[in-house]
Model the fold of this input.
Amino acid sequence: MALPKQSEDFPAWYQAVVKGAELAEPSLVRGTMVIRPYGFAIWERIQQAVDRRIKETGHENLYFPLLIPSKLLEKEAEHVEGFAPEVAVVTQAGGEKLEEPIVIRPTSETIIWATYAKWIQSYRDLPLLYNQWANVVRWELRPRLFLRTTEFLWQEGHTAHETAEEAMAEARTILERVYRETVEDDMALPVRLGRKSASQRFPGAVETLAMEALMRDGRALQAGTSHYLGQNFAKAYDVKFLGRDGKEDYAWASSWGVSTRLVGGLIMAHGDDAGLRLPPALAPIQVVIVPIYRTDEEKAAVTESLTPAVAALKAAGVRVRTDDREEHRPGYKFNEWELKGVPIRLEIGPKDLAKGEIVLYRRDLRQKSPVPLEGLAEYIPGVLAGIQDELFAQALAFREGRTFRPSSYEELKALVKDPGGFIEALWCGRPSCEERVKADTKATIRALPLDPAPVQGLCIVCGEPATELAVWAQAY
RNA sequence: CGGGACGUAGCGCAGCUUGGCAGCGCGCCUGCUUUGGGAGCAGGAGGCCGGGAGUUCAAAUCUCCCCGUCCCGACCA
Done:
């Protein structure tokens, strides 16, 4: 029952939390998972937060099919090369071998751009600002619950534009407005935004932008990506339009996505040795009430005092639940709700009732304090807001404390190993130096500046003049 | 796919070396007593010992093959 300690075995801790908090469990096909109601409720809230911002920034949802002719995938050379190894292919259906194999989408650029070709003729048809919520399948070699499952849920936005500038600006807007705001404001998780190096780029993209979050074991998690695709897909799928100048041109593209992986990030960034710590904005249950009593009279009194309090909390928009299970004693419930990460627990028994108080436990600080029962519904929302801020502040402080500027390559190598974190260092831009760091430390470049600025100094690896400040880390 | 660990009740494990009634803890069911940090007692249910083949009077245990899970790599949202 006791959780492994984060400091002793982080992967074991992670699995125990996912299972113990009833978020998800592995299913029968390797790498697939069942997302349980509590885990799905968290995902639904993330989903709603992302979806709201996607719509606020002018996009519409639509839906493309799961199945794609395999020939379509082959049209964009880099794209097929990047995804071929992990694509699942249907070769038989309806009791017969298919004349042409069908792939299960690993991402939908191909089917979408093949369709956009029919929808776009004129600059007047642009831009297309569409998004879909979907499942995709990638045959990953080493699955981990939420972080890398064979099938996962995500949103994928696919936009088509008249100009390169507009497509690039779109990729930036999604990253900075939609993604960063969701992850920082709702998930209480600070992220570093940046460009990916060529080796980390999405297959078929001209530029890949991403947000990176730091987990409590010092490793980085790519929390979302936003790609500027140039005209690569338009050319592969022949998406041409007649411009204002009367000339024909290929459309410019962006694509972007966040997935159920965010749930994994939430667990690993905020969780502690007692389990999950959920930010109030996403917690399916924000306040759990544990009534305490010995006799029937006490039970009646406690219940009576709670009825108006619960009603008032609900009226104040608080997601509250009373744990009135008879089969468990309070201590058991305390541990269970802490494991499940509920931000606030209220304990009320005869002693509190006599004083007109209730005991409030903050999951983020693991501290108890008495508060007046009177005016509870006015008080709680402020505490929830405080917990949201506190979780962000803790995550930010952790990241700051784990961000390093080594002055030598030796120091860089030592820091990646112990304690791990974001390592900022100058880089010459050569893939060979990036390769060497990876070979020596397993760390990769997680982010390059969104807006490249000239730098003074030498590459930390080779000592040649540097071109950029890179952020390195071991990644999930 | 390479290296390592492991598959025995829902979960966690012992038993295997040296073949001989399949066990322990938690959980589950029933009853009573309990309830402010993972309750106590009593009774009870639950097994293709991952699968197959072999050795043997006899296999959870020995041999061979297969399947699966987890960890570390390469790949990745």
